[in-house]
Amino acid sequence: MRLILVNDVSTVRGGATKVALQCLEASRDAGLTCAILVGDDGEGLKPRFAGIRTVALGERPLREGPTFTDVFAKNYNWRAYEAMEGLLQESQEETVVHVHGWSQILSPSIFYALAKHKAKVIVTAHDFFLNCPNGGLINFHSGDVCHIKPLSAACLTTNCDKRNYFHKLWRFRRALTQRGVGEEFWGRIGIVLAHENMEAHLRSGPLRHFTTLRTPTEPLTQGPVEAWRNHRTVFLGRMCWEKGYGRWRMRSTKREGRRRSSGADRCLRRCSTRCRIASYPAG
Q1: Residue 257 CA to chain centroid, in angstroms?
Q2: Predicted TM-score (pTM) of this structure
């Protein structure tokens, strides 16, 4: 059995990449023949995964600042397509391809390569990029959950993107490129959900096969916490709307009788006086 793991980046700066590398590590330890395709330089894999077949494109993720060439390359990354095709042709061994992240570098082009082969494909849904153009099923301007059908006319005309409407139009076009792989492909792949409630939001498209596998975690304490005795709140994660930070802040400030304010800097200053902030290291 051969595993090809696919992820935009190799350096852990968030939960998705951490889970992806945990999957790679577990597969290697189980005796599978492993390979990995990443969009960045692959430096995050050293030395932990020395000896594993690695294909690294050496490109920058969109979050570091899109360039003009990204308008085309990140809609359909030909280099990623060729790299995926090359890995699939390297061996006749029974192959499973496990995709974690593709929206920052690799693009939907990898799915076009996968559709040409019989390899079993599994996609772990760390977000909603499988059907939602902005990946969050959320309106980043209002902070509300979006109930509009993805890729509908109403979706097209809604300015929900965290940057601007032109970026939303670009994301919409990329989502159409992704859907264009074909219903036969999307109907045969397996989707791993981080939470069972995600399934209802992903069934609006051609996806059919869902399995829930909660993200592995390590306890922060040795025993149960008597949370009702505490006066401070701990928020773990990126402080952004899609992680629930906005609603948490609104409720906490309302509970304390404080006036709501806008602006991320003011949020952080206010929050930092009563909560601890945990983050992944930059390296």
Answers
A1: 36
A2: 0.84
pLDDT digits (tens, 9 = 90+) for 39-98: 999 999 989 999 999 999 999 999 887 787 888 889 999 999 999 999 999 999 999 999
For the beta carbon of residue 65, count every other beta carbon within 10 angstroms. 8
Report the chain's C-alpha Rg in angstroms: 20
Contact assessment for residue 144 and residue 120, using Cβ atoms and an 8 Å cutoff: no
Q: Kindly tell me the burial class for residue 240, based on how many C-beta atoms sit within 10 Å of its own C-beta (0-12, 13-18, 19 or more).
A: middle
- Phi/psi at 267 (5° precision): -60, -45
Distances (CA, A) of 25 to 29, 48, 109, 210: 6, 9, 26, 23
**Which 3 state secondary structure label does DSSP give 242?**
helix
- Expressed in percent and rounded to 5, the helix, strand and coil fractions of the chain are 35, 15, 50
**Using the 8-state DSSP alphabet, how is residue 181 labeled?**
T
CB 36 within 8 A of CB 24: yes
Contacts of range 136-143, beta carbons closer than 8 Å, 24 or more positions apart:
136/241, 136/242, 137/201, 138/241, 138/242, 140/241, 140/242, 143/241, 143/246, 143/247
